[in-house]
Amino acid sequence: MVEAMIKSKAAALTVAERCRSILGANSQAHLNTIKVDSKGSKSEIHTSKVHYIFKRGKPYIWVHEGDLHNTNIIIDERGSFSVSNVVPGPLTGLLKSIRKLPACAALAGRRVSNRARSLWTMLEAPELRWAFIRKIYTILTVQLLMTVAVASVVVSVRPISHFFASTNAGLGLWIFLIILPFILLFPLHYYYQKHPVNLILLGLFTVTISFAVGLSCAFTSAKVILEAAILTAVVVLGLTLYTFWAAKRGHDFSFLGPFLFSAVMVMLVFSLIQVFFPLGKISVMIYGGLGAIVFSGYIVYDTDNLIKRYSYDEYVWASVALYLDIVNLFLSLLTLLRAANN
Hints:
The protein is an alpha+beta fold. The chain has two domains: about 10-125, no CATH class; about 125-340, no CATH class. The chain has helices at about 10, 15-25, 90-95, 125-155, 160-165, 170-190, 195-220, 220-250, 255-275, 280-310, 315-340; strands spanning about 25-35, 40-55, 60, 80-85, 110-115, 115-120. The strands form two sheets. It has a four-stranded antiparallel sheet. It has a two-stranded antiparallel sheet with strand order 5-6. Helix 4 crosses helix 7, helix 5 (about 160-165) crosses helix 6 (about 170-190) and helix 9 packs antiparallel against helix 10. The longest helix is centred in the middle third of the chain and has 31 residues, at about 125-155. The protein is globular. Residues about 1-10, about 35-40, about 70-80, about 85-90 and about 100-125 have low confidence and may be disordered.
């Protein structure tokens, strides 16, 4: 820590400051610095999840022992300190509802000195966040183009779909391709910060999902596929623009998380019922419509997380989340339109 290291934590904080620090414990803080070489050129971004407390009305950063930032805790104009609520407590939500607590801590403009060390506490630099957002959408665009390419091959080359649909080996391979993305999530979680292993795993994950999309389209008319693709593009673009507009005006969509997760659980149970007890065309249309609504909500939720909560080293997870939202929205609309067309 910076200045409070001189005194014990208990002696340094007043009761009011302890209350504010308890409220701060409901938030997640990220300290970001950019390494520079002797020429001053930018290198990689180092991100730490840190805590912060208040002393005499000023915020102080508490860096974990052994963290890289302990050895060189200097933030210049290329660095930032951002705070966002992850799981807001009931008291935090109440105070925010009556506008007694800001949406995030405004830590800006005060320099805190401790002899040889200096530290700036500031809001996250907009340039860093926008660079991160551009990176995510670049990766997402590549994923979607890869999906279109793989799915097009599966649809246009008829022996591929015939192999999967009419042979036992094809059925076994299809089941393996359905399970493989879930298997790839484990190494992806372990290596998500290790470049380029994380991108290689992300590519494999995308290809396996693309095969599933291609097989879904292989037995669907071109008209239905085109309608689902156009609707998906319009919905994704509209919801993305809306979320950026709403976030700029201070709206928060983190409350959607529990509701969307519950809706996905309902969909999973519904799909299992459909496997063993088919309920007919109307139930399939209901399932597709419910899926389209749920994954539209997830696009808003994950875009809001991208804007406010994802740290710079979580670009793989942010890309996976948005990619799955878009793919599942497309497949839900495809299910709905295919059932209606039949």
